[in-house]
Design goal:
The structure is a single chain. The protein is an alpha/beta fold. 38% of the residues lie in helices and 20% in strands. The protein contains 24 helices and 30 strands. The two termini are 32 Å apart. Bound molecules: coenzyme A. Coenzyme A binds next to helix 2 and helix 3. The site of coenzyme A has 26 residues, from helix 2 and helix 3.
Length: 707
């Protein structure tokens, strides 16, 4: 990304409004009015072929008639005219385009959008939109949009894929008391997209937190890479997570990937903090834009009422930072300011007796104590205290503590006086909320951010870096796929699938095809008993239903009898079924059933899934995803992600399962679907049997569906 080029687009020193109008209410009228009203210090050039003046400013028939340089042109003419206008902008040497006009891919005119981008590119121009509101920047006093209000000034930057929402958020920012320096509307993202903007905002001196409202990413993988590298927190609200691709899915994994699970995994891997709804997006933005990450899990709560303290403690558990008792020396230090009837454990309860001096002393003491990683201060408005006194005491405590690397969030519960004090606290850099659970949720965002980025993370940091396995045979895997394609198939048989898995070092149960009874016996003798026989037919998907599976065969006689029985049942089940033969497979000893799956997600590409078999996947949908590839360490962490994780750890007296071996299999599998991403649409290893620690795992059945 060229930082300077985007600077020209997003921090323009001159703006031409093409389609500027004198008719109140028109978008071309609003755009000029907004640039005037916000006291934009740059040059504004209204462009209109019929008018000499627009809202008092000299107007020009075309950008080519403008005497000075133009950084940005806003395109506010009907879509059909934008190509010609873009040509003129190119010839004029305009740096960037803000294409407000609608009528492109969003209504099926992708062709027009492509032509627009191609025209802009020919002249080296970057393009925001089309189908957008525009951009706003408080520090540049620039409202190059048709949204009538600038947001409350602050340190966050908002990127929104919805224009209406962006305009609503400008005004909502005042009510919610959350400040933004910039708001950027991205619309169809025909050229500049989330990734470009995050990269740019990450270097922007005025931005401390990047807030995004996203419906879908253009290039999910690129966004993930940029987000992972970003130095500033990113908080995202993702909409449209229902029924994503689920209907069209051909496999278990595809069906499970619905409801945004892949997005959840991808954004988590990228270290993006999530917001659950719009309110939460504002609340988390406020904390992330004003406070440092919470580099540890010791959260201290100070309150003047038992009730709010307990509410906050409940919320802390709900949001993943359960409270711990303060260490003895901290309790002793706090005791000096807390009455006997109060508590110093955590939450610390100053009781109704607590006034500003107690807040000052306890907040300072807690912040300075090395055990404390983050602080939530709660205040119930009572007759005894003026909320403003408490607010000043909290601010003073923070300043006097000299501590700048621990976050603090505040909640005041009260009336108009409390509201005023809260506003003052926010203006002074302390995120403040109207309810204790919201303050805790906000500090949890700073905790999540720190955890995802390994800032003081509890325990050993996970190695996210993936090093490819060298002992894999990609050529062998590709040869098997090519053979299947040569016969016109877009799927691999179980035997072929297993060979591909084996080529990547996954522990598959040896399986071979027998075309005659004698062959079956021979294979069984070579593999060793017991064995399993399974019907191999492209027309029989559910082998057991067709009487096509016989297990635990312990002798040549068993194999012969099973072979005949399988063929007979298969023919009875489906007389016209094409039968390729019978698969002979080593019978794996029983173990804990798990499923490894993959999909090629339209946004993020090859993605792995892990879950326990049986009811866990069928009924509880207890699965977890990761965008591939993932290291074995990362895979190990993934195993702990599901609710059924204790079963692998050794629940109810069972020996712990071989999670190390399973994690390696998962990591190898992630490499397989990455390497063969151009071939494999979906796949699974189902079931995989996992044995006790040190005894590995076995892929019993496998399936690969080609693209
Ligand atoms: N150069 C400069 N000005 C031109 C021009 C050109 N080549 N061609 C026409 N104009 C002038 C028109 O004369 C008109 O000025 P006037 O009011 O003085 O007559 C002005 O540009 C606008 O053109 P008009 O044809 O009246 O269009 P419009 O204002 O009705 O609609 C859009 C234009 C872009 C607003 C409309 O097509 C549109 O896309 N609306 C939706 C935009 C939107 O909502 N985007 C964000 C979604 S989140």
């Amino acid at each position: 990304m060229d930082f300077e080029v985007l600077n020209g687009l997003l921090r323009p020193k001159s703006v031409a409004v093409i389609g500027a109008s004198n008719t109140p209410g028109k978008i071309g009228y609003l755009a000029v009015k907004n640039l005037i009203d916000c006291n934009y210090p740059g040059r504004v050039y209204p462009i209109n072929p019929k008018e000499a003046k627009i809202q008092g400013l000299p107007a020009y028939p075309s950008v080519l008639d403008v005497p000075g340089e133009i950084d940005v042109a806003m395109l506010i003419v009907p879509a059909a005219r934008t190509i010609a206008v873009t040509e003129e902008c190119g010839r004029k040497g305009v740096k960037g385009l803000i294409v407000v006009a609608s009528g492109y891919s969003e209504i099926g005119r992708k062709d027009l959008e492509d032509e627009l981008v191609a025209t802009a590119r020919r002249y080296g121009m970057r393009l925001l939109g089309p189908n957008i509101v525009g951009i706003m920047c408080n520090s540049d006093k620039c409202n190059a949009s048709f949204g009538p209000f600038m947001p409350l000034p602050g340190k966050a930057a908002m990127i929104s894929q919805s224009g209406a929402l962006l305009i609503a958020m400008t005004v909502a920012s005042y009510v919610r008391n959350v400040g933004f320096d910039k708001m950027i509307s991205v619309g169809n993202m025909a050229d500049v997209n989330f990734g470009d903007l995050v990269e740019w905002l990450d270097q922007d001196a005025q931005t401390t937190c990047i807030t995004i409202y996203v419906e879908g990413f253009q290039n999910g993988r690129r966004f993930l890479e940029i987000a992972r590298r970003a130095h500033k927190p990113i908080v995202a609200l993702k909409s449209g997570v229902s029924a994503h691709g689920a209907a069209a899915a051909a496999s278990h994994t595809g069906a499970m990937a619905g409801k945004g699970k892949v997005y959840d995994a991808a954004l988590q891997q990228a270290g993006v903090v999530r917001a659950s709804d719009l309110n939460n997006l504002f609340d988390r933005t406020l904390a992330l834009s004003l406070q440092p990450p919470m580099a540890g899990s010791n959260l201290m709560i100070i309150s003047n009422g038992g009730g709010v303290g307990v509410l906050a403690a409940d919320a802390a558990e709900r949001y993943g930072i359960p409270l711990r008792f303060a260490p003895d020396d901290l309790q002793a230090a706090l005791r000096a300011y807390v009455p006997e009837i109060g508590s110093v454990k955590n939450p610390a309860d100053l009781t109704g007796m607590g006034g500003w001096p107690e807040y000052l002393a306890t907040v300072k003491t807690a912040l300075q104590h090395p055990w404390v990683h983050g602080l939530v201060v709660l205040f119930c408005e009572t007759q005894r205290n003026d909320p403003m006194d408490i607010a000043s005491a909290i601010k003073r405590a923070v300043d006097e503590s000299g501590v700048t690397d621990k976050p603090i969030a505040v909640s005041f519960i009260g009336g108009a006086e409390a509201e005023r004090a809260m506003k003052w606290l926010v203006e002074n850099g302390l995120p403040t909320y109207g309810a204790p659970d919201i303050a805790v949720n906000a500090i949890a965002a700073l905790h999540e951010y720190a955890q995802m980025h390994g800032i003081g993370r509890d325990g050993e940091p996970v190695t996210e870096e993936f090093t490819p396995y060298c002992d894999v045979d990609a050529d062998a895997a590709r040869a098997i796929i090519a053979q299947a394609r040569a016969t016109g198939r877009v799927y691999l048989s179980e035997i072929e699938s297993k060979k591909v898995f084996a080529a990547y070092g996954l522990p598959v149960a040896v399986t071979e095809l027998a075309k005659t009874e004698d062959e079956a016996v021979q294979l069984a003798e070579t593999m060793g008993y017991p064995v399993v026989l399974k019907i191999m037919s492209p027309d029989i998907l559910h082998k057991s239903d067709a009487g096509g599976v016989k297990i635990n065969l312990r002798s040549a006689e068993d194999v012969r009898a099973a072979y005949r029985a399988i063929l007979a049942s298969a023919r009875a089940y489906k007389p016209d079924a094409r039968i390729e033969g019978v698969a002979v497979q080593q019978m794996a000893p029983s173990g804990t059933e798990v499923i490894l799956g993959s999909i090629n997600d339209p946004t993020f590409g090859p993605t792995v899934m892990f879950g326990l078999g049986g009811i866990f996947i069928e009924i509880l949908k207890d699965v977890t995803f990761r965008v591939a590839p993932i290291s074995a360490e990362h895979a190990l962490a993934m195993l702990a992600d599901i609710q059924g994780a204790p079963l692998l750890a050794g629940a109810r007296g069972e020996a712990p399962r071989d999670r190390i071996a399973l994690a390696e299999a998962l990591s190898r599998y992630s490499q397989m679907i990455m390497d063969l991403g151009d071939e494999i649409a979906e796949s699974d290893a189902n079931p995989v049997l996992v044995y006790a620690e040190g005894h590995g795992s076995k892929v019993v059945d496998a399936r690969i569906i080609l693209r």
